[in-house]
Predict the 3D structure of the following.
Amino acid sequence: MNRDEVDPGGAPPGPEAGPGEARAGDAERAYAALEALLGHRFHDVARIECALTHRSYLNENPAVTRPHNERLEFLGDAVLGLAVGHLLIDAFPTRSEGELTRTRAAIVHEQGLAEVAQALGLGEWLFLGRGEEQSGGRHKPSLLADACEAVIAAVYLDGGFEAAMHVVRGLFGERVRTAFEGGGTDYKTRLQECMQARFRVQPRYAVVATAGPDHDKTFEVALLLGERELSRGQGKSKKEAEQRAAERALAVLDVEGAEPGDKIP
């Protein structure tokens, strides 16, 4: 579709219009604001329109012939995983495969994708059916996460992997940079939820050692489940050490396995 063609189902809503309303202005610039946020100008506007089209919109608008975004969502999941993997490898050359795999999964999980989509205002650009609109679809984390993946795929198909990397770096770069400071992966919260579900108890953290001068201390923290020490972690702050201990404890619990309500091993 060329930029001067008008979509038969109506122009996208866009951030300056209310949900479900058509955007005002020249169709050639219909996606200019979103493109500016992404850092990519589409050669083929049909790609971004497809990425923003939910199945419910097509069900209620049979005259619209473009596909919905589910196939792009599938492709975007793979492209995003590869791109974030590249960023993690470059940023953390000494981290293990296991650490990188868990961190990538945390960065690209549904809530993280939904937060990125919210920052873009992506919900206001979605083509939704009336029922989905009325049920709050523009704010549903699952829809936002799916749309985020679909948009990444649209960029990839439009400009190749280099273009997709540029967009992913802009959208996820800060999450990657802070991934091992507790900003990208909150292992403490994940462990707390896991322990509450499995054992009905909360973890305890205790500083067991410090090393180095006051201006450059390293903390070692033990993580306790009941009276059992599950793991230890080190870091330049107590918070970082606790995150590392929680990360290792999650790996221990994953290996040992447990069912909800089990006794503390």
